[in-house]
Amino acid sequence: MTAQIIDGKAIAATIRGEIKAEVDDMRAKTGKVPGLAAVLVGDRKDSQTYVRMKKRACEEVGITSFGYDLPGDISQEELLKVVQELNDNPDVHGILVQLPLPKHINEEEVLAAISIEKDVDGFHPLNIGRLSMKGRDPLFVPCTPKGVIELLDRSGVTIEGKNAVVLGRSNIVGLPVAMLLLHRNATLTICHSRTPDIPAVTRNADILIAAVGRAEMVKGDWIKPGAAVIDVGVNAVDDPTAKKGYRLVGDVDFDSAKEVAGKLTPVPGGVGPMTIAMLLRNTMDGAKRAYGLS
Ligand code: GUN
Predict the structure, then answer these.
(1) Is the pTM of this model over 0.70?
(2) Which residues are annotated as catalytic?
């Protein structure tokens, strides 16, 4: 059996088209467009790339992006001041502080300082708290987890009643995606570094979400035949034949997995484009709320 490859790039392009139409509609009705502020602290190359991609995606759909490139040695107080200014700016509907932050910065305090109405990453403790409870709607859901669910929905995967296994328990992906699967009535298992026999657990998964950050860890024989496998990992591995000397692979060993899975996302071109599409979605939704259009 060969898996159906879930084309995240194509699905994300469809979503960006939907959002562009909504931006045009908002402009026509109010004369306004959504605005996203992207705050980058320091000079991590990966973070610079992610923020650049996010800003470019905004511009493509007509969302205004405000870039804040701050020095790596900025003080906690200065960073909190920038967040406060953005909270007060009526043209900004979404505030994104790219993670990870430098070690001397108290990340928890910075994320808590973002207005929950502008918390398009969904990382504010109130939004995460609401996400973690039954019947409490967060204003925003974190982008990558939201993108994972959207990929499943738009690929015709039923979640309700299925065994869903999440590999990883990070604040950004593992934990929130687990909450979303639970709210959609999956039977949920979370595996992590202390789980004794992970393959024995994953072989029961109808839906398997890999978000551990270990290159090609999930092999074909870890997968239940026909399962839907969503690979959130982005890992650089040395490759002397590649132009940059490395290539990107997921947490799933694609070649062996595609022989067993029913549906499978590639890396790149699976979850990555969906994260950005969901950021645009959240920014649009924030702006609609601000202008009374939702
Ligand atoms: N770092 C890795 N993923 C993310 C994300 O989705 N949002 C932010 N702000 N930082 C990240």
Answers:
(1) yes
(2) 54, 98, 121
